[in-house]
Amino acid sequence: MSPDSPAKPRLPLRVGLTGGIASGKTTAAQRFAELGAAVIDADEIARALVAPGEAALGEIVARFGTEILTAEGHLDRAALRARVFAERRARLDLEAILHPRIRAEMAHRAAAVAGPYVILVIPLLVEGGPRRDLDRVLVIDASEALQMQRLLARDGGPIRQAQAMLEAQASRAQRLALADDLLLNDSGLQALREGVDALHERYLRLANARLN
Question: Does domain 13-46+101-205 have CATH number 3.90.1010.10?
Fold first, then answer.
């Protein structure tokens, strides 16, 4: 590059945060945000994509029928959840509608981040296949028994549906095999926050090292 060439903008360190359902991903992400990190959440983007009038919602209705809508025309998440966790083909069809859109929007937002690192919360990171757009993968981990306990307390519903939701995700071993960083969330909120604080410092050091 010649001295007069403009410097290529440096992307922030991109950390994919994942974990099983009810493992504590949202709580960890909130703590990263409190510490000043940029956080981009796939679930938040998914909710925006299925708002009334959005093309993705139209495709979902075309695939699953109007019974997955409320009387006001909003997505009935409970009805759709019951469908997709009862039938693997239905879940794959929903993912085919949403996942490309979610990836594109996350990449767009990440490119605009000015801070040293960005947390990309991707619950189905393992299930989505190889990712070349991430520098590190952080797994928030908890035992399946603890996940089930938290899931039932959070969402209610039948145990069979909760079990189906757990079984539909990648195994705990698959997530751990992908992890660059691991945070075990089995000791309460304070321990989780302290773990995030330590990772925050690590990511700042890694991001700084990229600049030198």
Answer: no
